Amino acid sequence: MNCGLIADLLTELPLVLASSSPRRRNILEGLDLEFEIDFPGTEENIDPGEAPEDLVVRLAALKAADVARRHTKGTVLGADTIVIIDGKTLGKPSDPADAGRMLRSISGRWHEVLTGLAVVRCSDGETVRGFERTRVLVRELTDSEIESYVAGGEPLDKAGSYGIQECGAALVSRVDGCFYNVVGLPVVRLSVLLKELRGDAR
After folding, report:
1. What CATH number is given to the structural domain containing 44?
2. Which of 18, 33, 175, 200 could form a cystine bridge with 78, CB 3.0-4.6 A?
């Protein structure tokens, strides 16, 4: 049964997710949406001088545009998530040591999670963009906890080196804002963008 809350906003089918993230796929599945997956071939290059908000929107738009070129009809959704602390951008860790470093940097502290979204209507190339911001507090972590978590492998493909929807839930004390944004796909922001693409955002 389709709840319709997101599906009814789509003006052009199919919905195509331009992401290899299993977390984004799971969120769309939870919304009872029918969708396809088409992996973008773009590189996630981070420019140290670029504002975080601009960065996530730019990368999301690049992914969506790359996939949209391969489709004549449909709605393509691109997304990109980063973690910000002390003005520094934390993407996905390069290796286990990098994951441990990231976790130590956010241990016992608030940080921000930003997700950029871009939605492209393939028939005419019309594109809408936006982002969501959420504050997250990680509890104080011991070295042994960090080492155990990293050894399990979960942090290695996640921005900021933790997954709030998995074992990483045990690391998070508080969330101020959209939970799904921390997972990687802010659903309310997506609905706002789909309304904008349809022409009736308010």
Report:
1. 3.90.950.10
2. 18
The angle that helices 96-106 and 143-151 make with each other, rounded to 10 degrees, is: 140
Number of compact structural domains in the chain: 1
Distance of CA 128 to the CA centre of its chain: 16
Q: How many of the other CB atoms lie within 10 Å of CB of 8?
A: 12
Angle at the Cα of 100 (from 98 to 106), degrees rounded to 5?
A: 105
86-136, pLDDT tens digit by residue?
Answer: 988 888 899 999 999 999 999 999 999 999 999 999 999 999 999 999 999
pLDDT at 2: 54
CA separation for the pair 192, 195 (Å, rounded): 5
Q: What is the total residue count of the chain?
A: 202
- pLDDT value of position 50: 87
Where do the DSSP E strands lie in the chain? 15-18, 35-37, 75-85, 88-90, 110-121, 127-138, 172-176
User: Quick one: which of 132, 152, 134 has its CA closest to 144?
Assistant: 152
Is residue 133 assigned to a domain?
A: yes
| Positive or negative: CA dihedral 32, 34, 37, 38 | negative
d(CA 55, CA 52) in angstroms, rounded, equals 5
Which residues are known to be catalytic?
Answer: 80
pTM, full prediction: 0.90
| Structural domain harbouring 186 | 7-198
Q: Which whole number is the average pLDDT over 173-189?
A: 96
Whether the per-residue pLDDT at 199 is higher than 60: the answer is yes
